[in-house]
């Protein structure tokens, strides 16, 4: 079983700031986003998830670790991919979307230049992509 998909990592725990921060790695972020998208419509999921992440970084004393564009973009990617695999459970989603786990920065770089992605503007507010390499628009 995937160690991330445990009862301890829940929406309620993230929103309360009571998650085990040591195990809240990149996969934990993706799993939490997946949980929000399973529970709420897209706009609500983005709002609640990003608010919880911002609160958590403030609580931990590292508010500069929060990145609005990365958070929103990954939520949008996860939502799109969930829509393509109706009824997928977490383990199926994880298995079928390895690039979001092993190469998330490369996925982002398909859409964003480094100049924009790492800018202060992109950290503070969601920025639309400035490149579209290898984008299949079927």
Report on the architecture of this protein:
- By secondary structure, the protein is an all-alpha fold.
- The protein has helices spanning 11-16, 26-39, 42-59, 68-84, 90-96, 99-102, 104-109, 114-117, 120-124.
- Helix 2 (26-39) runs antiparallel to helix 3, helix 2 (26-39) packs across helix 4 and helix 3 (42-59) packs antiparallel against helix 4 (68-84).
- The chain has a domain at 11-103.
- The chain has nine helices and no strands.
Tell me roughly what share of residues is in helical segments: 55-70%
Coarse structural class: mainly alpha
Element string (H = helix, E = strand)? HHHHHHHHH
Number of helices: 9
Radius of gyration: 15 Å
Largest sheet: none
The dominant shape is globular
Mean pLDDT: 89
Total beta strands: 0
Low-confidence stretches: none
N-C termini distance:
35 Å
Strand content: under 5%
State the main characteristics.
single chain, 138 residues, mainly alpha, 9 helices
How would you briefly describe this protein structure?
The protein is an all-alpha fold. It is built from 9 helices and no strands.
Draw up the topology in text.
Elements: H1 11-16, H2 26-39, H3 42-59, H4 68-84, H5 90-96, H6 99-102, H7 104-109, H8 114-117, H9 120-124
């Amino acid at each position: 079983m995937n160690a991330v998909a445990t009862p301890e990592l829940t929406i309620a725990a993230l929103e309360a700031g009571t998650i085990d921060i040591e195990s809240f790695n990149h996969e934990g972020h993706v799993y939490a986003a997946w949980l929000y998208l399973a529970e709420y419509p897209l706009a609500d999921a983005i709002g609640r998830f990003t608010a919880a992440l911002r609160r958590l970084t403030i609580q931990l004393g590292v508010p500069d670790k929060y990145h609005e564009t990365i958070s929103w973009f990954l939520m949008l990617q996860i939502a799109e991919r969930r829509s393509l695999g109706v009824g997928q459970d977490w383990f199926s989603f994880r298995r079928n979307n390895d690039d979001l786990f092993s190469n998330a920065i490369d996925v982002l770089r398909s859409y964003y230049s480094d100049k924009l992605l790492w800018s202060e503007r992109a950290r503070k507010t969601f920025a639309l992509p400035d490149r579209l390499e290898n984008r299949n628009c079927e």
